[in-house]
Every structure is written in C-alpha cells, then in structure tokens.
Structures
1.
Amino acid sequence: MLVLFCLRLAAGLLACLLLLPPWPINPRFYRTHFLVALALAAVAAWFGYETAGTGLLVALGCAMALCLAGFLAWSLEGAPLGRGLIVAAAAALAAGLVLAETAGEQPGALGWRLAADATSAALLGSATTAMLLGHMYLIAPGLTIAPLRRLLAALLGATLARLALSALALWSSTGGHPSVTLEGETALWLPVRWGLGFVGPLVLGVMAWQTAKIRSTQSATGLLYVAVIFCFLGELMGQLLQGTTGITL
C-alpha cells in the first residue's frame, strides 16, 4: 500500500508542474518538487524491494536518476532540459506505478486499479502542489494569481474524476445495491472515506478558489493544508477498503 501511495504522489507532483509556466515562478519550487519525488521513489524502492521485480526496480532507479537530473537542471540558469526532465521523470514514475500494480496478487481488476492510480495521482499531486505554491506568494507577493487558480481548477477536476471512478466501480461491483452487498464494516467506513477524500477537498477547493480570487493567498494556503490532509487520509483509506473488498473505492 505504501509503495503505491508514494508512487501516486510522486508522479502526480511532477505531472502537475506541467500545468505551471516555468517563469516567473522561482526555480526553487521546481527543485523542491524533484527532491520530494526523489525521496518518495526511494521510500517506494525501500519498502517494495523484497516483492518488487527487476522491471520495477529499474523503473524506480531511472526515476530517481531523472529526479536528481531535474534538480540539477533547475539549479542552472535557464533550466536547460528542465521541462523535458519533468516529463521523463513523471513517465518513469508512472511506469513504476504500472509495474507495481502488476506485481504480485492485487485485489480488483487491473483496469480499475490503473484508473484509480491515474485519478489518485492527479488528486494528490494537484492538492499538494497547490498548497506548496501557496507558500510562494509569501516570498513573492507580486506573483500572478493565475498559476494558483490553474492548480485549484485541476484539484477540483481531479476530485470529481476520482469520485466518479469510485462511484462507478462501486456500482459495477455491487450491482447497484452497495448497502446490501457490502459487509458491515465496509459499509460503515465508506461514507467516511468519501467524506474525507471527496466532499472535504471539494468544499475546501471551492473556498480556496474564492479566497484566491481576492488574492487572500494566506487563507487559500491554510485551506489547502487541510485539503491535503483530507486527500491523504481519503486515499489511504481507499486503499485499505480496496484491499478488503477488491473494489476501487
């Protein structure tokens, strides 16, 4: 579970950088993302070493090397190959995520699991990147608000996509009668998972959007802090429920 979570978050973080203009955002922001992705890939390799196949280890090794190269590139003037390294590192992490899903016996159909990986990565990445970008306005108050609003739009879209996938998977797996076919504890925890993982980020995302419109970036960042916590708890709980039910929740 931890391996998948780390890879989802790392891939989402780097993919969300493609939504941002390289300038006037401080290159430090990009370097931070690469370092976080590098650490997450290392954690995934550490905890998944015993069960990972050769392909997954190679993918994680390539991802870590590309993250280090991306960090160095964004340390140089003009960030040579900076955008290309974002794409390459994100692709390596995505490949590792696919290989991690296909390794071993995982509950649920592969198609549903891969769709969950994609939507979860988008949700985790957009929430965390938006929160981190909010801090940039503390040291660069003159920065245009457009990048933050773009990430907030991505957060709302990713949340809706993740919710739609979870609802569709639940409907498909239970024949439209989840209260009848799900076991007691799962039916009890499912509303908590959806409330934390979907309703909370949606409400907080809309509130952050409204505060960003009036350039109250500190308030938006505070709201995004809570949204990130909700997203993390919701996705971890979703993985636990998927492990017990085999349904992408």
2.
Amino acid sequence: MNVPVEIFPQLSKGGRFPNAFFGRVPGLDVATEREVALARLNDWHREMREKVGFAGMPFITAQQVHGNGVAVVDAESCSRVAGVDALVTGTPNVCLGIYVADCGAVYAVDPVANCIGLAHSGRKGTELRIVPEMLRKMGEAFGSHPANVTVCLGPCIRPPLYEVDFAAEIVMQCREAGVGEVMDSGICTGSNPGRYYSYRMEKGKTGRLLALLAMKG
C-alpha cells in the first residue's frame, strides 16, 4: 500500500538525524475515536518505521495533553510518557514519535550538542509556548544552544481552514528564541484529504499522522 511519507532533508544533516512524517493510510477505516484509530494504525506505523530507517529503535511517544510539559527520555524510558507534549533526548538510536491530525509536529536537531526534540504544538500548545520550552529543556539537559538548532514544522492546518495561524506563531517563537535555522513545510493538512488526516475537516473522527525523529550513534 502506498502510504505518503515526507522526509525533511535539511533536518537530516547528512543522514545523522533520520526523520519522517507519515500520511494517511489509504483505505483504512479510522472514522472513530482517537485510541481506536491509533490501534488500527499501529501495525501500519510499525511496518513503515522499519522501512524508512527506524528498525530496532525503542519507540517513545508522549501522552499529548495540549500542555507545555517536556520530558527527557532515553532508551530505557516508558513507551508513552504521561502528561507531556514534547520529548527530548541525547541518546542515539531512540525513535521519538508525535501523533497529529491538524496540530503541528515540531522537529528540532542540534548537531553540536548532539540532541534532538519533537513537540506537539497546536493552538493551545503554541499559546503555552511548548516549542520554546522544548528548546529550553534541550539547553538545560544537554547544553544545546538555539543558534545551533535546526527546527522544522511539519504539515498542520492553516488559514483559511483554521481561524488561528499557529504555524506562523511557532516560527516567530523560534526566531525570537534565536534558533539558527527555521523551516516550515507550508503544508495544510485540511487542504489535502487524500494525503492527510484532519481533525477539523473530518469533525474529530479520523486517524493520526505520525512524526518521527531519531539521532544516529
């Protein structure tokens, strides 16, 4: 089955930081509640992780509560970290995962301090400044400096299909924090129902897109 996958080459830094963004699984019925949809997507996502370079890596996700909590994780962390919306690690070969369906998946890599972060930032999370908090945690835990960080914002919903341009706010927050390189995919999830799930356009009954990020040892 041809499942859409985005890779962000500038984020990869010559292959040191594998990344991916998985789109809609064609033909799979996910017009249901979030946890049921995730269960139906689980086998597909596991197979796809193995195909695009994350095979054998511990897979760690966040509970995603639309807050600004950030967890530092490693290979021994639990597979789903409670109460947070962002994960950071300095451990090689750990696959971070964030699920979205209109909210933004925000990737961050620091090739100098050798650490990465991945955040879930929608309207609420952006208001709570989850991405600056993730950058702060990378600095606190690993000595990362924003000037050495590359940030990428994946596909998310945007005006005119959504009344708040939180994507622009995320980019502005990153620049205000002094991030060295900020990239925005510019893609609207609501505008392409054949490729992406959209919570807004599908009235809450839909699947989840999966953002992945790791750091090679």
3.
Amino acid sequence: MTTDILLAAVGVVTLAGFVQGLTGFGFGMVAMGLLPAVIGLGEAQAVATLTGIAACVARTTISLAHVRWANISGLWLGTALGVPLGFMLQSSLDQALVLRLLGLTICLLVVFEIVVSRRYAVRLPEWLGWGVGLFSGSLSGAFNVGGPPVVAYIYDRPWTKEEQVATLNGVFIASGLVRFGMLAFHDQLHADTWLSAGLAVVPLLAAILFGSWLLNFIPHNRLRAATYLTLLVLGARYLILGKV
C-alpha cells in the first residue's frame, strides 16, 4: 500500500470519526461510502471494523454516564445474533436487494417518526429493539452499514441528545466486536489492515473529541432534524441505487 493511499485512508477515517463524535453515528456510512474507492471493498470493510471499534469505544468513554445500558439489552442481543448471520449469508444474498430493503425500512421509520409519532405521540415500542438489533446486526455483518435502523430506533426514544448519542455507541461496540471476531476467524485482517488502522488512531480520536465538543453547542431539535434528514437521504440513496 503506497503512502498516498495510506494518507487517503487515514483522511477518510478521520472524517468518519468527526461525524461519529458529533452525531453518535455515521462512522460506517462515511467510511464505507469512501474507503472502497481508496483501498477496495474487502480491505475497506476490515479497516472500517477496526477503526469503528476504536471510535465507538472512545465516544462511549467520553459520555459513559449518559449510556442507557438498561434500555438496550434487546438491541445488544439482536445485534450479537445478527452480525454472524449477515456475515455468513453475504455471499449468497443479492446485495442490491438487501440494501434497497434497508433504504425502504429507513425511510418508513423516519416517516413514522415525523408524521405519526410527533403528531399523535406514538412511539416505536421498546420491545421492538431486539428486531431492530437483529436487522442492524445482519446488515453490519454483511456490508458494515448497519447503523441506520438503530439510529432511527434510538432517536425515537424520549431521551436527551447526550443519552441518545452515547447509547448509540454502546450498541455499536457490540456489533463491532462480533464482526471483528468473524474477520479474525476467517483470516481477513492483514498487515496493511492493521497499518492503516494504526496510523488513523490519533487523528481519529482528535476528530471524535472535536465532534463531541461541538455537540454541546447544537440544540437538540436541530440535531434531531439533521439526523432525520440524513437518514432520509441515505435511505433514498440505498433504495434507488442499491449500493453503499
């Protein structure tokens, strides 16, 4: 791997870290949206997994007191079961179809939140968490883009913005660790993977800290609106294009 490619990969990971620090999600979306063009899809998934774990651990540590651990047991369980399922089925499933279904689901969740929940005070039931986690984990295991369903679910909870952002990262740690285990078991973590991830750690952590600091100055309603807008754009992109 040349120096230019390494620097480009580090730059992408740093940008993804800033987004993660600010919103609590988006690392996988940014990383998997840009890294494949730099280092290829397979290597991008491995680098995104390693650096994503570091990003989520760092973000959770920063706001550990705000994580709603008691409320995410279902998400954790569903995610832990979903990642290996998605990882094993990725070779036999049509990626375009799965991502289009993901896009449709994201759009429906956001529309439900905006049109129904806000107007009629209806919220997604908490017991739905395990199903959301299973779906998210499966997508993470297959394509490393499992964040949006969990984001839509957690942003529907009546929590503070700090609790929502912190809890998101607590969930993402579970999927990252299981995915890391699957990659290690199948010998998909190479020397270049560790080198790229290692070089990105310092700028990644700096970007997360800056994003976390900036979160203090953004009103909750604006962060929520920006989140839903991002999810709608992302969902529409997946639905139309069927690719990351």
